[in-house]
Amino acid sequence: MNVRSNASHETLTTPASTGVPSAIAARRRRRIVVNSLRVLFFVVIIGGWELGSRFGVIDPFFWGQPSGIWAQIVKWVTQGTAQGPLWQQIAVTLEETILGFVIGVVLGIIFGVVLGRNRFLADILGPYIKAANAIPRVVLGPLFIIGLGLGMQSKVALSVVMVFFIVFFNAFQGVREVDRNLLANARILGASPRQLTTAVIIPSALTWIIASLHTSFSFALVGAVVGEFLGSTQGIGLMIQTAMGTFNANGVFAAMVILAVVALIMEALVTALENRLITWRPNTVSDVTI
Amino acid sequence: MKWWQKTTYERSAVNNSLPMKDVSTSTQNARDRSTYAIELRDATKRFLTPTGQAYTAIRDVTLSVAPGEFCAVVGPTGCGKSTTLSLISGLERPSGGEVQVMGEPVQGIDPRIGYVFQADAVFPWKNVLSNVATGPLFRGQPKAEALGRAHEWIARVGLAGFEDRYPHQLSGGMRKRAALAQTFINEPQILLMDEPFSALDVQTRILMEDELLQLWSSLKASVVFVTHDLEEAISLADRVCVLTAGPATVKGIYTIDLPRPRKVEEIRFEPRFVQLYQEIWEDLRNEVMISYERQKQRVS
User: How far is B289 from chain A (nearest CA, A)?
Assistant: First the structure.
């Protein structure tokens, strides 16, 4: 299986003497076309929205208006929000998200590996984990607010719960799917049960675990923001809630834009982490990423 | 003179040096067991299928391998050759009979055993150097020493300069070399090989077979080499054991009296080789046909 990917890799990196310059030119042309169409798409959507609200097709009071959203962002950046400076709100939400993400991932991996290794335990706990996973975990938010207060802990707890199950199931599956040959080989080479876990099972399951990191990061963010909706003193979620309370549609959109920017930056960081963790994986030649 | 050589000698004196079924295995029990590196006596292995039925992989397999002997096991596809190896290695326990290694019953995985798998079993997340050093590190050798020996073995299998490559960056033959170094670094006294070269192309395969013979002669290990390729079996082994279609049992054991050191790419043209091949193939062909008929039935 690896042989094939290897071969195709070679054919792509080895420049053939003919046809290469034109292929490069074609690739460059395509990139220019794609980028200009991207800009055009943005202009049409946002421009249409703006024009629509100016000519009365869309009611800006309910649905906002791009220029109003931009003004709102500028105002938040220059004058701060109702709860304090904008960067502070972002920092609070980010802190909750990252704490929830890290704790959730660590717990998920630990439980996933332990249950994946121990079939007996997995059989006992299996139905309960499935049941817990079936409950929409956002409903735990009010409980955490009651129990842990309006501070950061309740949001972190909600994030942890959101993240935990995703990572847990992936780690569990990853442990179960470890190549039997690799296990047998490691045992013959002299691995103790503990070495088997640390040197074979975890690295092997890492591909599965890492695949879950992207989704779980967005879930951590959902946990933090929803927690802030439900009751908080700071954070982007609270900004959205305040904007909603004052019928400020532009405010909701503006907070959304800020969230999107934050999420994209964090996504890039997770991708960087992913690349660091699995350097050994064969390079996929085709560009699957958007 | 050891027992297995003696039998050959006696047999060939009687029978014009034609290969013979070596019946000595059944009369060995009376002798001192400690002379065998590996001994299976009526070993049987049954598995439970997911549907709850018992599936017999091997039945009453009796086979002994002397210290330093190279024994090849051939049989039709899926007949239970690999199961035999997993019993010797201790990865699986026999359902019946006895499996002994170095005169003691197998209990768990013996550190004196090395196992080369059919599929790639090098760790894809480790580069060649740490892959080869895995065994010594698992066994508690200091890191510097383990890495030093790994460098040595990487050079011996001809992978010098590829220490920092990951398995997916290597060709199939190079991955196999890494797997050999990974196994040989533990200096096993018993080497189990499960169709190790079956995934390689013919040229690479002959090259690897030659190198295996060289490594083996310096290591002095007892080898059980499972293969479905009779040509490979005869070129490499001192004795060839033919298994029946599953559930596998020993059909015949042939002594290969070709001189050593052998050159795998040349030996197959020798008249004696052809003679041995024909003789053993007679035996093997029936089993292959049985196995094939069964597969046809299963499909239809």
Answer: 29
Which residue, among B132, B134, B192, would best test binding to A if mutated, counting the most A CBs under 10 Å from its CB? B134
Give A236: exposed, middle or buried? Use CB within 10 Å, 0-12, 13-18, 19+: buried
Q: Are strands B70-74 and B239-243 parallel, antiparallel or unpaired?
A: parallel
User: The dihedral of CA A34, A37, A39, A42: what is its sign?
Assistant: negative
> How far is A186 from chain B, CA to nearest CA, in Å?
8
Long-range contacts of B21-26 (CB under 8 A, 24+ apart): B21/B252, B21/B253, B21/B254, B22/B239, B22/B252, B22/B253, B22/B254, B22/B255, B25/B62, B25/B63, B25/B64, B25/B250, B25/B253, B26/B62
pTM here?
0.75
**CB < 8 Å to B115, chain A:** 184-185, 188
Please give the Cα distance from B73 to B238 (Å, whole number): 11
A233: contact with B, CB 8 A cutoff: no
Asked whether the beta carbons of B97 and B88 are under 8 A apart, the reply is no
Mean pLDDT of B252-259: 90
For residue A14, the distance in angstroms to the closest alpha carbon of chain B comes to: 15
Q: Is A285 on the interface with B (CB under 8 A)?
A: no
How many residues are there in chain B?
300
The C-alpha angle with vertex A233 and arms to A229 and A236, in degrees rounded to 5, equals 50
Contacts of A28 (CB under 8 A, 6+ apart): none
Say how far apart CA B17 and CA B266 lie, in whole Å. Answer: 21
Q: In chain A, what residues touch B113 (CB-CB under 8 Å)?
A: 188
Gap between the Cα atoms of B102 and B64, Å rounded: 11
Prediction ipTM score:
0.81
Averages of pLDDT over each 10 residues, chain A, 290 residues: 43 54 88 94 94 88 89 90 88 94 95 91 90 87 90 93 92 90 92 91 88 88 92 90 90 92 90 79 48
Nearest CA in chain A to B123: A182
* Type of residue numbered B231: E
Distance CA B63, CA B34 (A): 14
Is the CB of residue A179 less than 8 Å from the CB of residue A204? yes
Cross-chain residue pair A185–B117, CB shorter than 8 Å: yes
